[in-house]
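pasting for ref
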Amino acid sequence: MATTKIWKVVKRLDHVVDYAKDENKTKNDYVENGFDQYDDIRRVFMYATNADKTEKQFYTTGINCDVEEAVEQMQFVKKRYGKEKGILAFHAEQSFAKGEVTPEMAHEIGVRLANEIWGDRFQVIVTTHLNTEHLHNHFVINSVSFKDGLKYYSNHVNTAILRRTSDELCEEYGISVLEEKTCKSGINYNNFYQKSLQNSDYYKFAKEDIDYAIKHSYSSKDFHKILNSMGYTYYYRAEKLSIRKELHKRNIRVERAFGEEYSEENIRRRILANDFIPEEKIYPYRISKTNYFGTKSIFKKKYKPKGIVALYYYYRYLLGYHKKNNTPHKLTEEMRKDIAKMDYYSELARFLCKYKLELAENVDDLKDKKLREKQDILNTRNRLYYKRGNTENESEKNQITRQIIQVTKELDKVKKEIKMCDEVVDNADKMKEPIRQVEEKEQEKVQKKKVRRYDR
């Protein structure tokens, strides 16, 4: 049966004193120059990544950090926020019953667990030890968040969330878990877990969104579509629904979090019970321009591509986009592969023309602008969620939810444009070499023609 536990990593006083007094220990296995105040975290890290236990580190993964430089990167975060004292890290373990998991499965579960619990704010090393009959994962978690500098606290609530999330993941993979019961000390972790759900805005807003999606759906397809429109990704494992929203790395197992009423069967039953009421479609108001003769016409100065825009248009031309005016070219191997991405390059070209991005600096400026716009939209959406939470009227709640859906659509557009900003510059650099090769071949053809004319 899968079990979990977590404990803190702190500097041992006797080790510090002995180390400071002994001249022979001014240089140890982990530090080249002088005293290393992170010796304990190095010891834990070396233990967790022991090649004899992890099959030569094939089952070692770094989350938000590199395995080879994990200690230094964790140390950098502590120094950045001025929190080098106190608890250095946390060391957690997840153990499985004998013969229930393969090394690959155990490590996959461990990485997913670390991502869901700590991945959005902390640096984590995940290792899977194979040296015992009971395969087990070790987690070394930095005590200071790289995101905001706040510390991680291993209290009853966080321990309850760790245990429950581990159980949920194991159930997805068909692995046995311990039944939740009151400990000898009188602590009931299930009560702490339920309390965490009640205090979590993430779970509270998700439940309201699911209720809205169920109420306004007439099929499972509608239900999934509305979830997507509100920014959720979803998947089913063992016929149980899980959802996750952007900026959160933790999946919500819907039935386990909100009760049997949210099982797949009951969600489908609630959807089928809805009365079909076709919603009125509101079309945008359009203004048509007419000339003196009463016919529609729009006179617009033609934009002449320059810089990166011109590069994309020329590349599409070489790939054969302009069929009528195209001349045969012997394409490079990279260009032949890119022919399948013609629509993709066309979309990037339209994006460049839309904002008239001629220089890489223009793209960087647009990306910064879009990042600020993304944050503004996220803030707007958060305010709408809190406004909905403070509203009792069902009609007003539905209206606010529709606003949330609209804001989420705007957010998706901005996120796509941010991604395109990165791709535009990267692809522009890749295009230059194939274009140069094609132009060299064309130049060779011209030279050969000149030689033939001279021979005549």
